[in-house]
Amino acid sequence: MKTERYDIIIIGSGAGGGTMAYALAETGARMLILERGDFVPQEDENWNPEAVWKHGRYQTGERWLDDRGQEFRPYTHYNVGGNTKFWGSVLYRLRREDFGPLQHMDGGLSPGWPIDYETLAPYYDYAERLYQVHGERGADPTEPERGAFPHAPIPHSDEMAGIVQQLRAQGLHPSPLPLGIRDGCVLCNTCNSFACKLHAKSESEVCCIQPAIARSNVTLWTNAYADRLLSNRAGDRVDAVEVRRNGDTVRVEAPLVVVSCGAVNSAALLLRSNDRHKAGLANSSGLVGRRYMAHLATMMQGFHPFRKNATVFQKTVAINDYYFRGPHTPFPLGQIQSQGRTHGVMAQTVVPQVPLSMYDWWVERGVDWLAMSEDLPDTRNRVAIDSTGRIQLHYRPNNLRAHRMLVKEMKRILHRLGFWVVMTHSHGARNTTHQCGTVVFGEDPRESVLDPYCRTHDVENLFVVDASFFPSSAAVNPALTIAAQALRVADHIRRADLKVGTTSTGTTSTPTTMTRT
Ligand SMILES: Cc1cc2nc3c(=O)[nH]c(=O)nc-3n(C[C@H](O)[C@H](O)[C@H](O)COP(=O)(O)OP(=O)(O)OC[C@H]3O[C@@H](n4cnc5c(N)ncnc54)[C@H](O)[C@@H]3O)c2cc1C
Ligand code: SF4
After folding, report:
1. What number does the ligand 2 atom closest to the CA of 47 have?
2. Whose CA is nearest to atom 4 of ligand 2?
3. CA of 261 to the centre of ligand 1 (A)
4. Which helix (H) or strand (E) element contains residue 227?
5. Dihedral, 227, 229, 232, 235 alpha carbons, nearest 10
6. SS3 110
7. Atom 2 in ligand 2: which residue has the minimum CA distance?
8. Which ligand is nearest to the CA of 84?
9. pLDDT tens digits in sequence order for the chain, 517 residues long
10. Residue 517 C-alpha to ligand 1 middle, in angstroms?
11. Which letter does DSSP use for residue 154 in this model?
12. Is 59 helix (H, G, I), strand (E, B) or coil?
C-alpha cells in the first residue's frame, strides 16, 4: 500500500474541518485535507428548485437505516464545504445560559458545557468576522453580551417589515437574523438548501478552504474517503489514516489527526476503526455515537388567499421570546425564524399527487417560518454501524411537549397576523440537518469522549472538531459555535501547551510531537 506523510491531517471540509484548516494553514505545517466529496460546480442547477429538491442533485445518494431498520436517504451533503454549502447561513451564538445546565419540561435536563460563554466569546468574534456575519446588537432579548456585529443587518422586505411591526404590536420582540453573506449577494429566493451560484454565501469552501489551499503547504484531496484510523496497540496514538481514493487505498501518516466528518460520520469513523479495539477508537467511555441530537424542527406556513407575498429574500426575522420560557410554562420552548421562500416543487415533494400549479398558487400566498426546539441528550439515541460499516441512526426525539407548545403558540401568532390557514410539516426523526452530540466534550473521561479542547481523552494525537462535541443542542443553529470552537482548538494546538517540534520540511514550528503536558 502506498504511504504518504504530512504534519497534520484534517478529515472533512465543512464547518469544523474547513475552519480548522483555515486557522492552521498559516502555521506553515504541511497539511492534508481529506474530503470524501468533490467541489460543487457553479452551474445553473445550483438555483434550480427542481434539480435540488425533486432530483436531489447535491444530496448524498447514500442510504442509512433508521431505528426500525428501514432504509432512508439522509438529507446531508458530501462535498467540499460539507453542509455549509447548502446552509441558510443563520449564524447564531449560543445564549450564555445554554452553556450551563437548563431545566426543561417533564424533568428533562440540558446539561452544562465544560466551557462558559466568556471562553468562547473571542472566538465567536473571530468566526463572525471570518464568515462575515450581518446582524444588529441589542435587538434580541436573549442575546449574550457582545460587541457590534461585523456588518449591518440585512434589511427586511416590505412585507416582512410590516410583519415585524405587527409582531411588536403583539408584544413580541422580533430581531434581525444574524446572517453570513458576502459582497455580491443579490438576496435571491434560492439560498437556504441551495448552493450559491455566485459564491456570495459565507460558507466553508469560499471563506476557509479556498484561502487555505491557496497556500503551498496545504493540500486538498477530493473524493478521498477516510475509511479507518489506524492506531498503535495501546490505542493511545493514531499512526495513520487509511484512505480510499480513485479506486486505491492509501495510507497517510501524520503526528496530528483532526476528524471533522460531521456528527454522524465522525462517530461512524471512530466506530469503524475497530481492528485493534472492538468498541472502536477513543471509546473507553462507550459513548462514541451516543447522545445524538438533531433539534426538533417544524416548518410552518401562514397562508392568506388574497395576499400575495412579494418577498424574495425572506429569511430575516427571529422571534426569541419563548427561548427560555413559554407564555404558559416556565420551561424553554425554543426559537422561531422566518424561512427562505418555499417553492412549489419543494412543497410537492411532501405530497406528490397534487399538481405543481396548485402548489405554486399556494406558496405565492404563503409566509414561511421554522419553529425549532432543543432535543435533549439520551444515550439510547445513537449512531451505530452494522458489520458492513453501514450507518444506523437510532433516534427517538424527546422534549416533544415543549416543541408542540411552541408550534401551537406560533400558530396563534400567525392567526393573529391574519393568516387564514397555517400549514405545518416536519421530517421528524429523519431530520439530520442539525446533527450533533455523538462525541461529546467534557472534563470527565467516563462521561465524555473529548476533553474541553476537543482532544480525545484516549488518543493523544487525535482531535474531533465538528458538531459532535456538543453536550447539548441548545435551540439556535449550531454552525457558528462549531466554527468558534474550531478556532479555539486551532489556537490551542498552536500554543505552547502542546509540545511542538520541527516539521518534516524543517521550516516551521508545528505539532509533530503530540504528548500531554
Ligand atoms: C439545508 C441546510 C441548511 C442549514 N442551515 C443552517 C444555518 O442556517 N445555520 C447553521 O448554523 N446551520 C445550518 N445547517 C447545519 C450546518 O450546515 C451544520 O451544522 C454544519 O455544516 C456542521 O458542520 P460539521 O463540520 O459538523 O459537518 P459538515 O459541514 O457536514 O462537514 C463534514 C464534512 O466531512 C466530509 N466527510 C464525512 N465523512 C468523511 C470521510 N469518511 N472521509 C472524508 N470526508 C468525510 C463530508 O463530505 C463533509 O464535507 C444547515 C444544514 C443544512 C443541510
Ligand atoms: S446570492 Fe445571496 S441570497 Fe442568493 S444564494 Fe447567494 S448568498 Fe444566498
Report:
1. 5
2. 188
3. 8
4. strand 224-231
5. -120
6. strand
7. 185
8. 1
9. 899 999 999 999 999 999 999 999 999 999 999 999 999 999 999 999 999 999 999 999 999 999 999 999 999 999 999 999 999 999 999 999 999 999 999 999 999 999 999 999 999 999 999 999 999 999 999 999 999 999 999 999 999 999 999 999 999 999 999 999 999 999 999 999 999 999 999 999 999 999 999 999 999 999 999 999 999 999 999 999 999 999 999 999 999 999 999 999 999 999 999 988 899 999 999 999 999 999 999 999 999 999 999 999 999 999 999 999 999 999 999 999 999 998 988 888 878 888 889 889 989 999 999 999 999 999 999 999 998 889 999 999 999 999 999 999 999 999 999 999 999 998 887 889 999 999 999 999 999 999 999 999 999 999 999 999 999 999 999 999 999 999 999 999 998 545 433 343 333 344 444 444 3
10. 32
11. P
12. coil
237 Cα to the center of ligand 2, angstroms: 43
> Cα separation of 47 and 401, whole Å?
37
Of 258, 261, 450, the one to substitute when testing ligand 1's pocket (max ligand atoms within 8 A of C-beta) is: 261
Ligand 2 pocket member 196 (CB < 6 A): yes
Amino acid letter for position 106: D
Cα 106-111-114 angle, rounded to 5 deg:
175
**Which ligand 2 atom minimizes the distance to the CA of 202?**
7
CA angle 304, 350, 363 (to 5 degrees): 25
